[in-house]
Amino acid sequence: MLRCELLPIMKNAAVLIALFLVAASAQNVGASLDDARGRPQGTPLQEKACCAEKSAPKPAACCPATPAPAPKACCAAAKIENPESKIENYTKESLYQLEVTFTDDTGKTVALGELRGRPVVLNLFFASCGYACPLTVTDMLAIQERLSAEQRAQTVFVLVSFDIARDTTEVLAKYRTQRALDDRWILLRGTDDAVRELAALLGVKYKQEADGMFSHSNLVTILNREGEVVHQRQGLKGGLDEATAAVTIAAKPAR
């Protein structure tokens, strides 16, 4: 009778022992897997960010650090290939930086930069002007006469017309003959934009009236050899001595 009562108890104990052995075996298997992965037991799969950082590998002794690349050639300072260039070598105050061209009374295309190296007496005018322009040209002729022969040979006298519609090359050529202007004089015409840009740089204002005539400033401008404004005679009277002196100084050889 006692043997029958103990039999269920022994079966239950055997079940408990079996369960204990299964749990222990599972724990050992987990530990073995952790060891195989190289991760200590109890460490989470994802480490914290502060622990995940790794120092950069140091270069091997046989492989020195690569130097920083040199700047590309396009980023280097531009080199002036042509020392005689009329663009790169102009001074900041030179009118010859003006990138426009004009046409003279023979039909030849002229850039202002071609005058570089010589003193220039410059005036904006229109050929059909009946009062102010003829007086200004007369004063420019007087300045030419006051210069020495050497200075006259160096100096250029330039008239630029702002009457772009009527002052053709033929009209300018006829004006040269009428005023007996020698080969030291250059008569120019240009596009409306070119003339207005030059006028703005010189401070000359002009406006065509309803009758076709122009109201305009009266300025005789003296440029040095570099095309820089060194003097301006304003108005229609006087100032010839100062203008002649400015040309004389501009005509001196550069040091």
Description:
The protein is α+β, with helices and mostly antiparallel strands and 255 residues long. It has a domain at 95-250: Glutaredoxin, CATH 3.40.30. It is built from seven helices and nine strands; from the N terminus they run ααβββααβαβαββββα. The strands form two sheets. It has a seven-stranded mixed sheet with strand order 2-1-5-4-3-8-9, sandwiched between helices. It has a two-stranded antiparallel ribbon with strand order 6-7. β1 and β2 (109-111) form a beta hairpin. α3 (132-146) packs across α7 (240-250). The protein starts with a helix and ends in a 5-residue tail after the last helix. Residues 1-7, 22-56 and 59-86 have low confidence and may be disordered.
Taking Cα atoms only, what radius of gyration do you get, to the nearest Å? 47 Å
Distance between the termini: 141 Å
Helix/strand class: alpha+beta
Q: What CATH first level of the domain at 95-250 would be assigned?
A: Alpha Beta
For the sheet with most strands, the description reads: 7 strands, mixed
The CATH H-level superfamily of the domain at 95-250 is: Glutaredoxin
Q: Which percent range describes the beta-strand content?
A: 15-25%
SSE blueprint and pairings:
Blueprint: H1 2-37, H2 49-52, E1 101-104, E2 109-111, E3 120-125, H3 132-146, H4 149-154, E4 156-161, H5 169-179, E5 185-189, H6 192-202, E6 206-208, E7 214-216, E8 219-223, E9 229-234, H7 240-250
Parallel strand pairs: 3-4, 4-5
Antiparallel strand pairs: 1-2, 1-5, 3-8, 6-7, 8-9
Helix pairs in contact: 3-7
